[in-house]
Amino acid sequence: MPHSTVARPGTPEMLPPFPDSLPQAPIQRISLQHLIDREPAAEKDLWDACISHGFFYLDCASCDLGRSMVRAADELEKLSHPAFRLPTEVKQSAAMSKMRTLFGYKGPGNVARDDPHKRRDVGEFWNVSKDDVLGQSENPVLYPSILQEAYPLFEDFMRNAHGVGLLVMELLAGRLGIPPEQLASKHKLQGKSGDHVRLTFGPGDPEEAKMETTRTEAETKITTYAHTDFGSVTLLFNWLGGLQVENRASGVWEWVKPVPGHAICNLGDAMYEFAGGKVSSGKHRVVAAPGAQAAYDRYSVVYFVRPEDDVVLEDLTPGAVPKPEAQRWTAGKWIDERSRQLGNAIKKRADA
Ligand SMILES: O=C(O)CCC(=O)C(=O)O
Ligand SMILES: [Fe+2]
């Protein structure tokens, strides 16, 4: 997959604007500082967002923790440019399919099992494992040196994003009647889990510019296939449009406009299970950025907070009826299975 010749200028201000005419998902903005302060109005907004779309903007400009995450995400975005321009052989030497799980490099060309149009996706990922970065993997991925040399930056971002994920879970636990320490104990930083930083790349394509309102679904190029996130809480930083969330009532794909200084935060399947289905794991995907933005290469920086691999995904709310044994998925197996559905050829775990 050749890279676009249009280099991203590097500063968000220099990018063409997101077209205001497009239907945007009605996602609330919530201040991280207000959540840290446990302000009741912010907690209520969080709850409302989580039981409706399962998505919200997290205003990170409001506190040191948030500003530090924004700075690290900006640095990781810059690192992504050379990391995705490495020769294909170098990237493939750390391919997910060669590794034990979904960590490592994902190239373009996957076809999701359930895509009726059998489109090949155009997106690339570097999935950098928390356990590898923290030096607690038995079998770490041999990432290219450009990524390994940046482990201190990854670690800084991970620790902060993990902390924010735990805060979101603690606040939701309060509403759900789940003892907060029960969720925290299933998402320990030191636990073996699918947590990782994902750097994503989608090639710019000037021919896609302004096609977003006329192209059919079959003509829509997929950067990242429609999916729900597999874990508990996701924090996402992006600079160009392209992210879309499915409106649950109408089935229409609505755009999510990047807002400077804000993370996009969403819940995944594991949180849906823990909450007994009371919160949403919203379906989303990434397509070419809209309008003149389509010509630019698109990068995003994501952190996934997931339950530890051996945690059973089950309803933790008071009075929940335990699932029959045959329907009890551990987080590790759930992540592997969902990853295969999205077209990733990953090996079975030794303990599976
Ligand atoms: O790149 C984005 O904006 C979203 C990425 C995403 O949804 C994912 O990697 O799970
Ligand atoms: Fe996602």
Automatic annotation (TrEMBL):
It holds the Pfam family DIOX_N. Keywords: Iron, Metal-binding, Oxidoreductase. The keyword Iron applies. The keyword Iron applies. Residues 205-307 form the Fe2OG dioxygenase domain. It comes from the Eukaryota. GO terms for biological process: small molecule biosynthetic process. One of its GO terms (molecular function) is oxidoreductase activity. PANTHER family: 2-OXOGLUTARATE (2OG) AND FE(II)-DEPENDENT OXYGENASE SUPERFAMILY PROTEIN-RELATED. Belongs to the iron/ascorbate-dependent oxidoreductase family. This is Fe2OG dioxygenase domain-containing protein.
